[in-house]
Amino acid sequence: MTEDLVLPLARSATVEAAGGKGQALARLHAAGYRVPQSRILTTNAYRLFVHHHGIKQKLLAAAMPDIEAGQLQFNGAAERVNALFEACQMSDKLIETIDGVYRDLGGQERMLAVRSSAISEDQPSQSFAGQHETHLSIDDFDSLLFAVKNCWVSLWSERALSYRFQIGMTNDAVAMAVVVQHLVSADVAGVAFTANPVSGARGELVINANLGMGDSLVDGSITPDEFRLDRATLAITSSRLASQQNLATPLGSAAESDRNASEESVGRTSLSSAQCVAIGRQALAIEASFNGVPQDVEWALSDGELWLLQSRAITRLPAEPLVNVRWQSPEPGAYLQRTQWVEHVPEPVSTLFEDLHMRRSLQQAWGRNLTRRGNHDFEDTQQPASFCLTTTVNGFAYRQVGEPPRTGTVDPKSPKRPSIWARYQAKLQAYLASTLKWRFIALPRYMKVIQYWQQLNPTTATLEQLWKGIRVLSQADASYWFNGGVWHVFAMSRGTEAQLQNFLQAHSAAQYSSGQFLSGLKSPAFESQVALFHIAERIRGVPALLDRLAKHPPQSVLELLDADPAVKPIKDNIDSYFDQFGHQLRSMDFVEPTECEDRLNTLRSLHGYLCDPSLNPQIKRERLIQNQRHLQRRASRCFRGKLKLRFWWRLWIARRYYPYREAAMFHLGRAWTVLRPLALELGQRLTDCGSLAKPNDVFYLTTEELGRAIRSVIAIDRLPATHRQAHYPDGAALPELAALANDRRKLRNRRKKLTPPFLIPGPPPWSPLQDKTSDEEFGDGLQGSPVSPGRVTGEACVIRAVEEFAAFRPGTILVCPMTTPAWTVLFPHVIGLVTDIGGILAHGSIVSREFGIPAVLGVKNATELIQDGQTITIVGETGKVLL
Prior knowledge:
It is globular and about 105 Å long. β23, α25 (843-851) and β24 form a beta-alpha-beta unit. By secondary structure, it is of the alpha+beta class. It contains 26 helices and 26 strands. Among the domains are: 6-182, ATP-grasp fold, A domain (Dna Ligase, domain 1, 2-Layer Sandwich); 188-313, ATP-grasp fold, B domain (D-amino Acid Aminotransferase, Chain A, domain 1); 336-400, no CATH class; 427-512 and 639-670; 777-882, Glucose Oxidase, domain 1. The longest helix has 35 residues, at 420-454.
C-alpha cells in the first residue's frame, strides 16, 4: 500500500484511482473550467483502511443479503457492515494523510465539502445516483475524518448493496475514493443536461435549479425550477417555477441545510435568462470537451461566478425521439391490424427480417395457402399483383386484412357454393385432421430442415452455404406457420373457444365466459417453469449451494456452478433445460437473441424459486384443476336437457383443442437457433472484408444488399492476385453498407419509443373488429378483453420491453405491451396482467390461466395510461381495469 493516497486535480486521474466523480473533476480542471480547489483521497486510502484492519473477507461475508419471506433484504447486511467500520479506527498514516489534505485546502479558515467517488459511479450505464454519501459544511478536522469514513461506509449502504445486486455487480471489486474540496457558498445550484434526459431530445438543453445548495435537488427533497433551452440558440423555450419551500442555505448555521424558506423566496425564479444562457453555454462547451457525449453537469452560482461541481455522461439517455410521426396505410383501401402472428413481434423489426422473412418467406407461404383453397393462382398472391400480407408502418409489423384480387384470366371460374354435405365433411375433416397434420406432417417437416442445417459448422461453411441456410430456414419457419402448421391449429383453437363463448353468452345469462373454463391446461411455457422449479428443488437439497446461489446475483449463478465440480449434475440439469426450452423468443424477429443465448432472465426466475419455494407452479396447477372442476359442476347446473349435453360437448372440445395452439407456437422460431449463428458468421466475414462495422449489422441490410456484398467477396476471391491488385485494390469492401446498417440500427432504436395503434386506419367495414378508441375508458377505468378470471387490486409495474425485466417488482400487476414466451419467467411473481394488445388466444392469456392470474388483454395504450406504481384493480371476468 505504498501507492499515492492523495491526488491533486492537476494530476491526471483514472477511475480506478479517483472514482468516477474524481476523474471527471480532474478532466474539468485540466480543460480550464472553474472547479473548486480539491484533493482526491484515492481508492488506495480506502483499501489501506480495509487492509490495515484485515476486514475485507468480513465485509464480503457481512454484506450477504438475508432472505425474508422469499425476498432478499439488505438492511441487515448494511447494519453488519456499519458495525465493522464502527469498530475500526483510522490508522496514524491515514490520519496524517487526511490532515495534510485538510491543511492544503485551508480547512482551518474555510468550510469544506466531502463527496464520495466510487469506481463504479457516474458511468454511462449506471450512475449510482443518490447511493453514496455527500457531506457539506465541514468546519473542523474531526468532522472531516467522520465524513471520509462515512463515505467509505456508504459504499455498503442498503441502497448501494441492493443496486449492485440488481445490476449483477459483485462486492469484491468495489472501492471508494473521496473528493475533499472547498465548499462553494452557492446562491443558486442545480444540474444542466445537454440533452433531454427523459425524452432523449438532442435539440433541448434542460436546466434544473434551486435557491441555495444543490444537495436538496440531488436528494429529491425539493422540487426544482426547470428551464428548457433551444440547444442551437440557447433561447428559453419553456420554464416551470416550483415553490422553493425547502430553501437550502449555504452557510450561516451549523446545519448543512435550512429546510424552511423565507416567505419572500417562495415563487421567486432561481435563474435569470442571462444566467440560463451562461450555464447552457458552459454545459455545451463541457460536452464538446467530453468528446460530444451528452452530459449531466452539476453547477453552482456564488456571487455571480459559475462553479462546476461534476460532469458525467447522462445515464441511460433514451434514443432521440421521432417527430411528426404519421400512421398511414401503405396504400389506399388497405386495413392493417396488430394481431395473430404480429403479436409476437412487439418492437420495430430489423431490416433483414422485414425484407427476407415478412415480405418474401411469409408472403410465399401465405400464397401457397390461398392457392390450395382454389380461389387464387399463386401469382395472384405475390407482389406486385397482391398487397404484402405482413408489412410495416414506422418499423412496426402489421398484418393486412382481406384477400388479394383473384385471378385475372379471361374466363375465371366462379366458385361453386359447397353443398351441406360438403360443408359437414370439411368441418369433420378440420376437427380430425388439423392437429394431426400439424403433429405428423408440418412439425416433422420443419424439424427436419432445422436438423439438416444444424449439421453445418458456420465457421467452416462457405459464404454460399451460409446465405442459403439463412434463406431456407426463414422459408421453413414461414411454412410452419401457414402450411399445415400453426395457422391451422390456431384456427381450430379459436373456433372451438368461440363456440363455447357464444354458447355461454346465449344460455348462461352472462354469468360465465369461456376464459373461466380454459385454465388448468398444460402448456410448454408452464412446463418450462415446472422444470425450472425442479432444478431449484435440487439446489435446495444442497444447503451450502443454496446459500451461495441465493445470496449472489443471478448473473453469477452459472459461474458459481462451474467453479464447483461436485454440483456438475445440477449444471447439467440447467444445460438440459436450455436444450429443451432455450429456443424460446422474446420476439419473432431474428435480430433478437434466443433464451439460450441471453440466459439472464431465466436465471432471475431460477433465483426467485431459490428464494421463495412457495412459488411452486405445480401446486398452483393442482389448485386450479380443483377450482376448475368445481366451476364446471356449478355451471352445468344452469343447463337442462340438451343444453347440458351441448355445454359439456362445447367445453370438452374447447379444452381439447385449446392447448394445441400454445403447443404449436412453442416451436415457432426454433429455426432461429440455427439461423442466427449462420447470420452472425456471415456478418463477421463481411466485417472482416470491410463491408460492415460489426457482425450484428448483417440484420440491418436488405436481401439485395446482402446478396451484393456476398457476390463481391466471392468474385474478388476468384480473381488472380495480379488482377485483384490492379483493378480492385480495396478488395470486396462496400463501406457504404456499414453506414446504412448503422443508420437503420439507430432509427430502429428511436422507433422503440413509439406506441403503434392497434388498427390502421380503423376497423374495416367487413370485419367484426371494434375500434377500441370509443370505449377504452369508462369512468375511472379502462376496458379490454377478459381472458383470465379473478379480481385483484395491487400496484402496477409497467415493463415495456424484455430489457427492463430487472426493474420488475414481485407481487405487482404486470402492465406491458404484449407478452411472448420470453415473458413467462415473470408470471410466477405477478398477481395480475394487463396488456396493450392481445385476446383470448394470445400467449399472455394462456399462461395467465395456467398460473391462475387475473388478466385483461387488449387494453389500448395501457402502458401509457397506467402509471408505474399506481394502484389499480383488474376484473378478469369483465375485462375492466379500475384506476
